Amino acid sequence: MLSYKFIQLPRDPLLRRGFQGFVLSLGAPVGWFLIELLSDTSTLQSIDKYAGVYLYMLFGTATAFISFGVYVGHNEIRLSKLALFDPITDLYNQRYFAERLHEEFLLAKRTGAPLALALIDLDHFKLINDTYGHLAGDQVLKDISTEMLRCVREGEVLARTGGDEFCLILPGCAAQDAIKTARRIRDAVSKSKTGFTDGANISITASIGIANAENLDAKDEQELLKLADQKMYEAKDAGRDQIRSALYYKGA
Based on CB atoms within 10 Å of each CB, which residue in 86, 136, 160, 190 is the most buried? Predict the structure, then answer.
C-alpha cells in the first residue's frame, strides 16, 4: 500500500483512481451543505428536506469522477505495459532489459557474484517473413517466446531486444549453468512449430552467444554485451543452431 499521511491508497491504478474519484465527488454535496449551513442555521433542523438533493448530487458526481478515475487508471496500466513489454511477444523490451542489465552489472561488480548474459538470434528469420509474410513471422515470435520462457528460472530476465534477437540476463549463474540454460532454450526453439490453416508448419533454429563474468572487472555492461554478441556471431559462423560461450576477462 502507498501511504499519504493518514490515507492508504491501493497500488492498483484502477482502484487508486477510482478511490480518488470518490473522494473528489464528496466535494459538491459537502460544499453545498456548508453553504446552506452558513446562510441558514435552520438547515440542520430540516436536513431531511435536503437529503434527496444531497444523495442526487453525490450519486451524480461520484459516477462522473469514478468513471474518469477508472479511465485514467486504465491508461496508466496500458502505458506502463507499453513502457516495459514488447507488444508482439509480451516479453520485456529493450528499455527494461537495458535498465535491468545495468542494475545486475552493478550488483555483480559490488558483490563478486557471477553474472551471465546470453544473446539469442533466430536463424534465417527474414526468410520466414519473406516467404509467409509478417503476420506469420509475428506468430512464430510469439510461439518461440512462449517456449523460451519455459526454460527461464525465477529472477532471470528474458527480453526481445530486436526483430529476431533476444537477450537473457542470468544473475548469479556460473558458466556451466548458463550453458545448460542455453541448451534448453536452443532445443526448445528447434522443437517449436507454428502451424497455420493452410497446413504449413514453420520451424526455426537459434544461435546463442554467452558472456560469463566472475569477479567482474569490466568497465560497464557494454563490454559484456560486446563479448556475447561476438560469441553469437561465432555460433552462426559455425553453422547456426550452435552455442558459443566465453569467460570475460579484462582486455577480452
Answer: 160
Residue 5's pLDDT band (boundaries 50, 70, 90)?
Answer: very low
* Sheet order of strands, 165-171 included: 157-160, 165-171, 115-122, 206-213, 243-247
With b for 16 or more beta-carbon neighbours within 10 A and e for fewer, the 1-17 pattern comes to: eeeeeeeeeeeebbebb
Handedness of CA 219, 220, 226, 229 (dihedral sign): positive
Our CA angle for 11, 12, 13, nearest 5°, is: 110
Please name each of the domains of the chain with its CATH number: 2-84 (no CATH), 94-247 (3.30.70.270)
| 72-83 mean pLDDT | 57
Measured in whole angstroms, the distance separating CA 23 from the mean position of its chain's CA atoms is 32
For residue 72, give the amino acid letter.
Answer: V
Yes or no: say if 142 and 245 are a contact pair by the CB < 8 Å rule: no
Higher pLDDT, residue 216 or 86: 86
Per annotation, catalytic residue among 86, 123, 143, 164:
164
Q: For strand 206-213 and strand 115-122, is the pairing parallel, antiparallel, or unpaired?
A: antiparallel
* Euclidean distance between CA atoms 41 and 85, whole angstroms: 59
CB 128 within 8 A of CB 137: yes
Q: What is the phi-psi region of residue 124: left when phi exceeds 0, alpha when psi lies from -120 to 50, beta otherwise?
A: left
40 is catalytic: no
- Measured CA to CA, the distance from residue 18 to residue 186 in angstroms comes to 46
- How confident is the model over 130-151, as a mean pLDDT? 93
- pTM, to two decimals: 0.69
Q: Using the structure block, give the residue that is written with the C-alpha cell 527474414.
A: 126
β-bridge pairing 165-171 and 157-160: antiparallel
